[in-house]
Every structure is written in structure tokens, then in C-alpha cells.
Amino acid sequence: MVNRRGANWSLESAPWAAGKARTAVVEQLGKWKYRPAPGTVTAVEAVTTLLVEAAVADGGTKVSVHLADQDGQACILALSHHTNLTTGLDNAGGDVLHQITAHQPVTGCGTDTGPDGRRIWAVIEL
To answer: pTM for the whole thing?
Structure first.
């Protein structure tokens, strides 16, 4: 990850995972000296929740959350670690992607599935 800072957390795939991830992401952005506007913090929290809830819904035993920053933007990614999913482009995530892009500071998002599970991500302007 050239020119990017990164952090990640491995969580049990459980209903409470979104809350832990939300707190961890916001705290890490603060450690990196980001001071986003209150509306942006709300969007970061909401998007992190949507990403992690989608990963938990896949039914794996753990979820990992990855955070990176570059040029005033943060990329938040959730990985389901459910290995029995069909690989390739993931159309099942379409509804959650629409929910993610409804948040104003989101500049991009996507989802795909690989051998390590479904990856769902969003880029947010901080």
C-alpha cells in the first residue's frame, strides 16, 4: 500500500461486529489526524455499519475490516471470509451499494467475491 496508511481488525461474524468496527474506524481516522465534519463522521459510521452487516450476512465465522487513507479519502472494506460463495462479480450486494452511495461523501463503492469471501468496500471523502 504505497502512500497509504492502513489498519485492519478481525471480528467474530456476529450482530455486534458492526458497532465494534464503527468505533474502530472512527478512532483510527482520529489517530491519523482527520477531523471530518459531523455529517461526514455520521456517514463513515453508517457506511461502516452497512459494509460489516453485509459481510456478516454472508454467514462466515469471522469478518475483517480494512481501512486505508490517501489524499483525504478513506477506503473502508469488509471481507466476509465465507469461502463457499460463488466467485466473480457480486450482484447480490446491489441493494447495499445503493444504500452506501446515498451518503453524500461516498465517492465510490463496489463488491466482488473471491476465494477468501465477499469483499465490499466504499471510498469516502473526508
So the answer is: 0.91
